[in-house]
Amino acid sequence: CIKDNASITVFGASGDLAKKKTFPALFGLFRDDLLPKNLVILGYARSKLEHDDFLKRITQYITVNSEDDKQKLEAFKQKCNYLSGAYDQPEAFETLEKRLRELEGERDVRNRMYYLALPPDVFVPVVTNLKKKCYPENGIMRVIMEKPFGHDLKSAKELQAQLDPLLTEEELYRIDHYLGKEMVKNISFLRFANPVLAHIWNKNSIANVQVTFKESIGTEGRGGYFDSSTIIRDVIQNHLIQVVTLLAMEIPSSFNSEDVRDEKVKVLKRMRVGDIKDIVLGQFTKSEDGSKPGYLDDKTVPEGSRCPTFAAIPFFIDNERWKGVPFLLKAGKALNQSKVEIRIQLKDSAAGLFDDIYRNELVIRIQPDEAVYMKVNVKYPGLRTEPILTELDLTYSRRFENMKINEAYEALLLAAFRGDQSNFVRSDELEYAWGILDPVLSWLDNDRPEPLPYTYGSRGPAALDEFMQKFGFVHHGPD
Ligand code: BG6
């Protein structure tokens, strides 16, 4: 079984993602003894790298805090191998097969994971070659793929059509790393294990839902990629829409991956973008003090680009539970802070008795500093007989002080080793998610709307406040 013996080949092993996320996550699992006992790790990329340079590169982002961890890291390095080769030449995959057999033979390994941290134009050649040259004869094969899965609905379908004859859905693990984040996985527990929340989770009690992604860094150095991606493809189409499906789905009959994904798909089928006219697009300009460049100052960005680095888009889900409730998805780079959160604002209540009370809000802070808190009105402590707004606060670092929250990639890689696809994106989910955004993407391509400028380090375009008001969000205080 793959839990006991497996090789994992990381394609794109000399790249950024591999050194920042994939190898640190593999080490995290290795350190906690969660990887198969009989294990082979092989890095594969085009760059010619000496073994030591490869090890240096992949351990750059790993921190060890104890003697024990140091030893574990040495043992981990012993397991890591590197092979350089092309992505599109069958002979290179013959060499890969040979190398894998040698390494696997030593450890009696029969199952194979292939992790593709690769640009999308080589997905198909790599999988074709893997299927032809490197398919495990007596074991299981799983291919983990990183986004982007297509550029729009049409290209996503084309990509899938090319992969269909090569991989079964059970063999293909499409990563959306947000699905591995602790607080995203927590959504179903909060919703379905607590009647107090389950009962208010609908259009009768909820006024609006926001999912906000803010990053305080710009597109530094990634402008070339980002320009054709836009914030909409980069973050909203995948991470934020995935979060919405978990917030909005009906209770699945089990946590089995098909049951969960069936429910998520039902949400996507009913989800649509509101009026295109209401969408707010922004593009960052240089910071006030001039120390941070504007988006257009990036040399890799085409002159005069209208690429949105910020977007606020209203969505609706036309079903019994959610009819009329706006789901406001907002994402932006180069903002005043880095924060990802879900904010569920409840409708006004207790009218008449109090003058100054506020709406309840349930906030699930995904990062940084994981938390769930509910804004509530209480009596002002002491002799004043008036209400004050405060929070029922579950900040994880305080409440679960000694418990470790694993990195998203650790959770997802472990799930892939275990064959649990519930937090990976199924092909129909992917298609519906693209389909929902198609009207927005064609508007961007055909009308080339001009994004509103906002200063690097600001809250985003000023029009955002109006957008929020329009969809019934009532603002209370700075948070
Ligand atoms: C990636 C996007 O998918 O997610 C990046 O391509 C973004 O642009 C990143 O910065 C955010 O991930 P995280 O885990 O840092 O919130």
UniProtKB/TrEMBL annotation:
**Listed pathway(s):** Carbohydrate degradation; pentose phosphate pathway; D-ribulose 5-phosphate from D-glucose 6-phosphate (oxidative stage): step 1/3
Q: Which UniProt keywords apply?
A: Carbohydrate metabolism, Glucose metabolism, NADP, Oxidoreductase
GO cellular-component term (any): cytosol
Answer whether the UniProt record assigns the keyword Zinc to this protein.
Answer: no
Ranges where the Glucose-6-phosphate dehydrogenase C-terminal domain occurs: 189-472
Recorded hits in InterPro entries, A to Z, give: G6P_DH, G6P_DH_AS, G6P_DH_C, G6P_DH_NAD-bd, NAD(P)-bd_dom_sf
**GO molecular function annotation:** glucose-6-phosphate dehydrogenase activity; NADP binding
Provide the Glucose-6-phosphate dehydrogenase NAD-binding domain boundaries.
10-186
Q: Which reaction does it catalyse?
A: D-glucose 6-phosphate + NADP(+) = 6-phospho-D-glucono-1,5-lactone + NADPH + H(+)
BP GO annotations: glucose metabolic process; pentose-phosphate shunt, oxidative branch; response to hydrogen peroxide
The EC number(s) attached to this protein equal 1.1.1.49
Query: Is the Ribonucleoprotein keyword given for this protein?
Result: no
Q: Which PROSITE patterns match?
A: G6P_DEHYDROGENASE
Similarity remark: Belongs to the glucose-6-phosphate dehydrogenase family.
Entry's NCBIfam families?
zwf
Function, as annotated, reads: Catalyzes the rate-limiting step of the oxidative pentose-phosphate pathway, which represents a route for the dissimilation of carbohydrates besides glycolysis.
Q: What PANTHER family does the annotation carry?
A: GLUCOSE-6-PHOSPHATE 1-DEHYDROGENASE, GLUCOSE-6-PHOSPHATE 1-DEHYDROGENASE G6PD
* Descriptive protein name: Glucose-6-phosphate 1-dehydrogenase
The species is Schizosaccharomyces japonicus (strain yFS275 / FY16936) (Fission yeast)
Q: State which gene encodes it.
A: zwf1
